[in-house]
Amino acid sequence: MTPLSAEKRLAREGALDARARAHAGGAGAARQAAGHVLEAMNAARACGTVSAYLAIRSEIDAMPLMLALSGLRIPVALPVIVGRGQPLGFRLWTPGAPLDPGPFGTSVPRDGAEVEPDILIVPMLAFDARCHRLGYGGGFYDRTIARLRSRGPVHAFGLAYAGQQMPRLPVEATDMQLDAVVTENGVIRPEQLADEALPG
């Protein structure tokens, strides 16, 4: 194990505890965050198919966002784990659609058509002000974001509780920076740091 890998492992342990605390006290956070995601999409002029997720463990619930998108007739997809070391696949989802169990406690649409999303809503363990993300260590979203960005414009928005923010995360070359992180408190963009560093 490299020093950076060990640092990430320690960060994950702390992040799990922090997220659990945020989840326990986060009543209403998912609905508030959903509104901010729609604002972020409008600001970025992001449109097309949106990939979200069905929350597991103490992840912030993306269902309020998914229902809002469906109500606006915006196509929604869910990620599908294709295999170890592979990018994610995606299938269209609609409210009430039958689901099948997937790996790691996930659920996938049984009959949804395979699609390639234009916007990714990404769960996480933690994030920092530069919109770096700490995941579970499988690299699925990093590989997926890298592949989609190599093919054309794609927006990757993290979805998290505000309490999941850390001062600074350990980052490797394969870790993909997000375009923004959205919490119940609003939208965090990496360029805000540069703006704040400018003299008044």
UniProtKB/TrEMBL annotation:
GO biological process, one term: tetrahydrofolate interconversion
Domain of life: Bacteria
Keyword flag Magnesium: yes
Cofactor(s) this protein cannot do without: Mg(2+)
EC numbers for this chain: 6.3.3.2
Catalytic activity: (6S)-5-formyl-5,6,7,8-tetrahydrofolate + ATP = (6R)-5,10-methenyltetrahydrofolate + ADP + phosphate
SUPFAM superfamilies named in the record: NagB/RpiA/CoA transferase-like
Molecular function terms, GO-annotated: 5-formyltetrahydrofolate cyclo-ligase activity; ATP binding; metal ion binding
Gene3D superfamilies for the chain: NagB/RpiA/CoA transferase-like
Residues involved in substrate binding: 54, 59
Keyword ATP-binding included in the entry's annotation: yes
Family: Belongs to the 5-formyltetrahydrofolate cyclo-ligase family.
Name of protein: 5-formyltetrahydrofolate cyclo-ligase
Source species of the chain: Amaricoccus macauensis
Keywords: ATP-binding, Ligase, Magnesium, Metal-binding, Nucleotide-binding
Residues annotated for ATP binding in this entry: 8-12, 133-141
